[in-house]
Request: fold
Amino acid sequence: MEPEAGAISPRPELQALLLRLWERLHLLGERARELGAENLRLREEAQQWRDELSRLQEQESAAHARLQKLDEEVQSLRQQLHQMEESREHLSEELAHLRSTYDATLEELKRVQEEFQLAQQELARRNHELYLCQKELERCRERLAEAQVQRPVEGLQTEELRERVRSYEDTITQYAEQCAQLQQENALLRQRLSQLPSPEEIEQLRAEVLRERERFQQSQQELQLLQRHLLRLLEGYGLSVPDRFDELIGRLEQLQQTLQQGLESVRQLLRHPLWLPEEVQRELVKRIRDLLARIEQLLTTEAVRAGEKP
Amino acid sequence: MSRLVRVTIAGREYVLRGEDEAKLLRSAHEVNGQWQQLQAQMPEQSTTTMAILVALNLAEQYHELRAQSEADLRHVRETIERMVEYVDACLAAPGVSVQRPGIAL
Reply:
């Protein structure tokens, strides 16, 4: 039996095995360090994505507010368009009524003036006849006086002369009645002429018709401006130009529905959790960016067109 | 179940009872080998002396193996403790490179 010599070392094969185990463990540690660094990088990237998501949500809110404002503006323009249409129709009817009243008044005035001239001519003719009859009566009276003075006058001639005098007196009375009737008719005509519009009133009526016509044309121009503005809005949103006003309103509602659907899809996308597979995240972010770019392009186009509006 | 095993040690045959026949045969073979080795070196010694010397040799081998085993176990324990410290350091600071500890060979 030999004496024990110093401390005993572990067996070399055991040390070699532990050394190999240390090397494997070190490799695992390095791998763990790499994975930890990758984990930190992914966390930072996730935070960046959260910040990007928050920024996109803010942009979505701003775009939504802008779209609501545009929608209100479109509604207001549509109401104005309706009002202008109604006003135009009302003005058109009023203008037609004024024009017909003006034409009828002019016709009546012409007719009354013609009647008045005819009555004046008739009155002058009757006056002339009355004058001639008075002259004849005067001459007959003179002859009667001469006949009464030259006696003896035959009774037959005297009766004949008296008969002629009565006849002339009847004629004169008839003419006097006709003159009185004509004077009454003249008075009636003058009264009717006084009731008709005066030349100043007719001129005023003519000026009013011209003013109404100008208002009508101005209303039509404003209506055309509004329609052009609405059409520019539609073209800005990529819609074709409609032929009728009903179709225009339909296009506006269609545009409103499209924008609402886009906003709803953005909201649906933003409700998804952040930690999705990487392909899904990329697709999600791409769709959100495309949609926001489209909204921004629409808003920019609308802002430019609003700047061009007079 | 214990079995009867027939073995030969120092020229004499013994019938032994044991649970593990193979271990019993290996132990008898070891004792017999020691016996024959000593007898070849010291053929004039008595059977009793030879038996004591064989027992002393076996006891010495037992102590050496025990000391070696304790040294191995201590080395393995210390190494495992350093490995645990290394793993804890790696887990405590993810993403940071941990200095590899010195290895006692």
About this structure: The longest strand of chain B covers residues 3-9. Chain B is about 65% helix and 15% strand.
